[in-house]
Each structure stands twice: as structure tokens, then as C-alpha cells.
Write the C-alpha cells for this entry.
Amino acid sequence: MYDNSTAFVTIPSDLGGCVGSVPGGIIGGIIGLPFGDPKAGAYVGASVFDTAFEAIIGAPFYVIEFIPRKIYEASTDDDEQPAIEKTIETIGE
């Protein structure tokens, strides 16, 4: 999910996905019972919860990594504009 990020983001994101797949598998298995295929429901539930937990857990780490990177990139430009204003404009694009 966070392919361009460092291990600072990907490790917590992947761990969150592993944790999320457990309740997702249980809920998916229960939902799959009336349809006669609890295994398929468990697979779908686990993958959905895995993706959701990766996004939720990784997002704060991504923000912590992303903002300083953008401030640094903006501060290395030759313009006279302060770095924080350049960063706000860059994020808004």
C-alpha cells in the first residue's frame, strides 16, 4: 500500500494488516455461513480487513514521513518564499 515509503511506514502498516486479518476472517466466516461457504467468506473478510487496517495504521506514519520530506524539498528550492508556505502549496496541488 505504501510502496514508496521507508520501513518506518511499511512495517507498522504490514503489522496492522496482519492483526486486522484475524477479526476479518472470523467475521467473514460468520457471514459466509448462510451462503454455504464460510472459507470463502473468511478469505474475503480477511483480505478486506487486512487492506483497511494497513491503510488506517500506516496513515499516521506516512504523514510523519511525508511532511518533513516536503518541507526539505521546498527548502532546497531557490525561490525566496519560506519553506512552510511552499510545502502548504505543494500539498494543496
About this structure: The radius of gyration is 19 Å. The CA atoms of residues 74 and 85 lie 9 Å apart.
